[in-house]
Amino acid sequence: MAAQTPTALLLIDIQQGFLPTHHPANFWGPDRSNPSFESNTTSLLATYRSLVAKFPTQHKVIHIAHSSLSPTSPLHPSSPGFQFQSFAAPQEGELVLTKSVNSAFIGTELEGILRKHFAGGNGTGKLYLVGLSTDHCVSTTTRMAGNLGVVGGEGEVVLVEDATAAWGKGGWEASVVHAVHAESLKEFASVRETEGVLEEWKELGGK
User: Fold this and answer.
1) Which residues are CB-neighbours of 161 under 8 A, at least 6 positions away?
2) Structural domains of the chain ordered from first start
């Protein structure tokens, strides 16, 4: 099989603590954006796993879990909410990293892992980001990926905007919070949607 530009799919904080059954009412906010988040992420993960199966050294799935330092948080490691949601649960061989701040690059080995992985493309790669929430950990991690240059000068950071979600806050509806933050991330990444990314991956996998 011909070599491809190395890629990685980063799934950020898709944990049970964000489900309504695992947090008090309005804990994260009064409403959530993007009802297609779960279905889009499910499709992306399934297609990307097929790509990994065909090209296991060139593509990598990385799961990020948020380990809150607050004992009352649904994402505290002592809480059932710390566990991954079933549709995004890691499979054997997939990397899991744990953080305690918004950025997945702080307090983890993520930067080194990505640089080593993308070294197979002469330091150039493509990093795709999905997960929760758009305005917190997804935004911070996307910005740092761009600032750190982990994909190399010719690489690309890709935020899959409709595979992320945000909660309303400060009187702003969730859809507004989501849209504004996704728009602001265009300075740091290509902001794309699930359909186009799926087509790209299917082409890489030879359909």
Assistant:
1) 134, 182, 191, 192, 193
2) 7-71+84-204 (3.40.50.850)
| pLDDT tens digits for range 51-101 | 999 999 999 999 999 999 999 999 999 999 999 999 999 999 999 999 999
**Ramachandran area for residue 138 (φ above 0: left; ψ -120 to 50: alpha; else beta):** alpha
For 94, counting Cβ atoms within 10 Å of its Cβ (0-12 exposed, 13-18 middle, 19+ buried), the class is middle
In the chain, beta strands by DSSP E: 7-12, 59-66, 95-99, 126-132, 156-165, 190-192
pTM score, whole prediction: 0.96
CA–CA gap between residue 61 and residue 45 (Å, rounded) = 9
Could you report the per-residue pLDDT of 157-206, keeping only the tens digit for each? 999 999 999 999 999 999 999 999 999 999 999 999 999 999 999 999 87
Total Cβ atoms within 10 A of residue 88: 20
Residue 75 carries which side chain, given as an amino acid letter?
A: L
Q: Any idea how long the chain is? A: 207
> Taken in order 43, 87, 186, 151, is the CA torsion positive or negative?
negative
